[in-house]
């Protein structure tokens, strides 16, 4: 933990916005350097102009590749585009609009010229494509690096299903974009987009439709006092609009927007990072915990949530997901009994126990929200959640709300839970532990060479020879997710009361060990020690 974690940013922590934007236009990437190539992770391409990994060249090339991809797939409807409050998002949107205009794409940008949360863009695509019978379908681009530091930029493509693109699409776009950069952008088509852009009121549409998925009447009747902190992100104007539309007692705790984020408290590593699940990053928000019944935070594009209650402070995301699932499954009578509940395989097994008690199907998938998209689209999944504080769920009628994470939605659900049950989500989680046990959960990192990371990514569960973990017989050794059979890019080992999963980091020479025990912190420490030994043995013996 950094010595200044949880303290307000100082002037020396702040970026020079003019220099950052100047580097965006000035720096030209060298695609022979892996660090400067277009690279789509689970949330699109991310980088910084200071490192020549997010520049005008990147955005023009990626946008041209998206235009060619959508043409190859005969996607001919409008492309919805939005940006968050990061400094690089504005110039990136301008670059993208010029390339979209050059390719004759019908574009829908925000009618207010303002910021667009990720869930609002996903909702716009889904609403447009509803009942269109696969003709003239829309897709979208959201420009955001999510909770990343102020110097970063991000660029993500959402196809007609409205959620994150799958690896087939992103691999094609990534490869084509790098080809275009290597060729000096000579095949990029562009023209001045002024007067060639259509508009869409993302905020009005999203806020109006929220009544299809949240019980605002219950929140209003109960008089729940809500504090919402956008953390300087794109949800800032949405929260006030929600308060006005539904007449609920909601205060925007901090309406400030500044691309340097001088009002943020530093994260665990001393960096400015808008992570609503981090106690250090949320320290300034936590100062108001006694002023509201429910206090919430969102990251810069509002796809993540942080839930704060007066008695317990900031909730662990795993804890809140379990509570949300239990509440929704018992308070959405029109939801199909045969549809499943989705979780990533590194999320808490408390979710497994809750879902099984509800006699519902658990759908366990690899890390990445894209794995929930098919189920959220066809209704076979009612809720999808990640341990990193991202989730979405269906409307009251079981129809699709979004196919991307919605931090605004999950924050509002916390208020609904309190209004309907009379208990905060933290109080409800305590009740769950009395029924199902109180798990200890932690993620730690262990060193690994690039070669070892490559081995781990392709490691088979059958390669693990251990038969016990922390004194319990091993019940499963997984290299594919039980919910959909997709490769998990690592391994997961499960016993009756504990488990661990190991996955290589995509950015550092480490691998991540996620572990949980229902036998307490000491047993968790034993699980972690043995997990590292088991994985190291598999890596060295492979």
Short description:
The protein is of the alpha/beta class and 542 residues long. It is 34% helix and 20% strand.
Can you walk me through this structure?
- This protein has 542 residues and is of the alpha/beta class.
- The chain contains 16 helices and 23 strands.
- The protein has helices at residues 17-26, 56-72, 89-102, 118-129, 167-182, 202-209, 216-222, 236-246, 283-286, 317-331, 350-357, 373-378, 407-421, 425-436, 450-457, 521-541; strands spanning 40-41, 44-48, 79-83, 107-110, 139-143, 152-158, 198-200, 226-229, 250-252, 294-298, 305-309, 313-314, 340-344, 362-365, 381-386, 390-393, 440-447, 468-469, 472-473, 476-480, 487-494, 498-504, 510-517.
- It has a 7-stranded mixed beta sheet with strand order 1-2-6-5-3-4-7, sandwiched between helices. Strands 9-8-10-11-12 form a 5-stranded mixed beta sheet. It has a 5-stranded antiparallel beta sheet with strand order 17-23-22-21-20.
- Strand 10 and strand 11 (305-309) form a beta hairpin.
- The model has no long low-confidence stretch (mean pLDDT 96).
């Amino acid at each position: 933990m950094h010595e200044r974690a949880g303290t307000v940013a100082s002037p020396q922590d702040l970026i020079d916005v003019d220099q950052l934007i100047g580097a965006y236009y000035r720096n030209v990437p060298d695609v022979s350097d892996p660090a400067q190539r277009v690279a789509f992770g689970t949330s699109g391409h991310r980088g910084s102009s200071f490192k020549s990994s997010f520049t005008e060249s990147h955005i023009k090339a990626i946008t041209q590749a998206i235009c060619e991809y959508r043409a190859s797939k005969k996607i001919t409807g409008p492309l919805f585009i939005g940006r968050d409050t990061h400094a690089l998002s504005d110039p990136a949107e301008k670059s993208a609009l010029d390339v979209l205009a050059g390719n004759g794409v019908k574009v829908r940008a925000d009618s207010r010229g303002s910021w667009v949360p990720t869930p609002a863009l996903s909702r716009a695509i889904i609403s447009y494509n509803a009942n269109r019978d696969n003709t003239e379908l829309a897709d979208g681009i959201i420009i955001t690096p999510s909770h990343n530091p102020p110097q970063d930029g991000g660029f993500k493509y959402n196809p007609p299903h409205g959620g994150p693109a799958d690896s087939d699409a992103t691999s094609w776009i990534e490869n084509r974009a790098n080809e275009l950069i290597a060729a000096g952008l000579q095949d990029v088509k562009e023209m001045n987009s002024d007067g060639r852009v259509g508009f869409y009121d993302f905020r009005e549409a999203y806020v109006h439709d929220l009544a299809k998925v949240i019980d605002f009447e219950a929140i209003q009747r109960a008089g729940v006092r809500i504090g919402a902190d956008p953390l300087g992100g794109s949800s800032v104007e949405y929260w006030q609009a929600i308060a006005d539309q539904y007449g609920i007692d909601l205060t925007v705790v901090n309406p400030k927007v500044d691309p340097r984020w001088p009002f943020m408290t530093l994260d665990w590593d001393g960096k400015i990072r808008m992570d609503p699940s981090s106690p250090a990053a949320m320290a300034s928000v936590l100062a108001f915990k006694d002023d509201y019944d429910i206090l919430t935070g969102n990251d810069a594009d509002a796809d993540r949530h942080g839930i704060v209650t007066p008695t317990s402070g900031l909730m662990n995301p795993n804890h809140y997901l379990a509570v949300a699932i239990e509440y929704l499954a018992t308070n959405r009578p029109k939801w199909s009994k045969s549809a499943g509940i989705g979780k990533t395989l590194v999320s808490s097994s408390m979710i497994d126990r809750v879902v099984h008690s509800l006699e519902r199907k658990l759908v366990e998938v690899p890390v990445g929200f894209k794995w929930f998209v098919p189920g959220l689209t066809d209704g076979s999944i009612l809720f999808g959640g990640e341990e990193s504080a991202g989730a979405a769920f269906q409307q009251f009628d079981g129809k699709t709300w979004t196919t991307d994470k919605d931090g605004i939605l999950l924050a509002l659900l916390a208020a609904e839970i309190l209004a309907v049950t009379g208990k905060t989500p933290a109080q409800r989680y305590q009740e769950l532990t009395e029924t199902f046990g109180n798990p200890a959960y932690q993620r730690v990192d262990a060193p690994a060479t690039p070669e070892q990371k490559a081995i781990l990514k392709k490691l088979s569960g059958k390669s693990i020879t251990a038969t016990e973990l922390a004194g319990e017989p091993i019940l499963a050794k997984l290299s594919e997710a039980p919910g959909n059979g997709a490769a998990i890019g690592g391994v997961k080992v499960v016993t009756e009361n504990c488990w661990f999963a190991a996955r290589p980091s995509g950015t550092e020479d480490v691998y991540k060990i996620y572990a949980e025990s229902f036998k307490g912190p000491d047993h968790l420490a034993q699980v972690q020690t043995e997990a590292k030994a088991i994985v190291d043995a598999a890596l060295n013996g492979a």
